[in-house]
Specification:
Elements (H helix, E strand, L loop, with lengths): L28 E3 L2 E3 L4 H13 L4 E6 L1 H7 L3 H8 L3 E4 L2 H9 L13 H11 L3 E5 L2 H14 L5 E5 L10 H12 L4 E5 L4 H9 L7 E4 L3 H6 L7 H5 L3 H8 L1 H23 L20
Length: about 290
């Protein structure tokens, strides 16, 4: 498997993920073959909670422009997206592109999923696990979420070491620890594409767990980063807030995203949208890349 994080061997005996055909919602929009099948946050919270209660695992991704850029060049990332159980639109541009196709859709971000899912998990007494970010952020997040949800069952918190690979023996051991903890929902905060690749890999070893990829959500909850004010979020300008506060790290990423959006719009105007790839419902076996 090629790519920055894909240099360690996948255990040969890895089982295939459980088949999700028949329960994964069909796409409501397809953007360069990345399918979106969730339009509203309440629907996603309900589906993840129901899956957790019935012992059906899966993955949850939130599609944004940066992901679309990375999907063009990372086969492992594409495979994870092709097999994702639920995909929402994270970011105003992706929402706008989906609405052009007639989708009834609003922005559903990883950062906005943690609190409602934890509230639902607390109500249903579903154990949750947190994987990623730093030990200090995890500790701060635990304090906040336990205060907000006294009945919340936290089965585990783990900050992987620097250089953690999302596949291979180290990732398998992490997935087995998550499964052994009894968690039914695992929030993965490793950043893209590492978190999505890990989630797809981990579900082989933790088939009863739903892995929800949430980016910097725990940094916001734990207080190590400040999220954009609600005014910026409502206006679809959260990216601008982040760029102003971290231009060195984000300027290049957002430039590539802007170029991607321009190219997509031109192709759409010229009627040259790319063909779709097979989705998880059309794929009998997982990729062995």
């Amino acid at each position: 498997m090629s790519g920055l994080f894909h240099d360690r061997p996948v255990p040969a005996e890895a089982p295939a993920p459980a088949d999700t055909a028949g329960r994964t919602p069909g796409p409501i929009a397809v953007i360069d073959a990345a399918r979106v099948n969730i339009g509203h946050q309440a629907d996603l919270v309900h589906l993840v909670t129901f899956d957790a209660l019935t012992g059906r695992g899966g993955t949850v991704f939130t599609l944004n422009l940066d992901h679309l850029v990375k999907l063009e060049r990372d086969p492992a990332f594409r495979n994870a997206y092709d097999r994702a159980t639920y995909v929402s639109a994270d970011g105003a541009p992706v929402v706008a592109l989906a609405r052009r196709q007639g989708a009834d859709i609003v922005r559903v971000t990883g950062a906005d999923l943690v609190r409602p899912l934890c509230a639902a998990a607390a109500l249903a007494r579903l154990p949750v696990h947190f994987f990623g970010t730093s030990p200090e952020t995890l500790a701060g997040t635990e304090v906040v979420l336990r205060r907000e949800n006294p009945r919340l069952v936290i089965a585990g918190l783990e900050s992987p070491p620097f250089g953690f690979s999302p596949i291979g023996t180290e990732a398998r051991a992490a997935a087995e620890r998550i499964a052994a903890s009894g968690a039914r929902i695992c929030f993965v905060a490793l950043g893209a594409p590492k978190q999505e690749i890990f989630a797809e890999f981990a579900r082989r070893w933790a088939p009863d767990v739903t892995f929800v990829c949430i980016g910097a959500a725990l940094d916001f909850i734990g207080g190590s980063q400040a999220r954009a004010p609600s005014l910026f979020q409502a206006a679809g300008l959260e990216w601008l807030w982040r760029l102003l506060h971290n231009p060195r790290r984000l300027a290049g990423r957002y430039a590539l995203s802007a170029l991607y959006l321009m190219r997509y719009n031109v192709r759409e105007l010229l009627g040259r949208r790319r063909p779709t790839r097979p989705t998880s419902d059309q794929t009998d076996q997982p990729s062995q890349e």
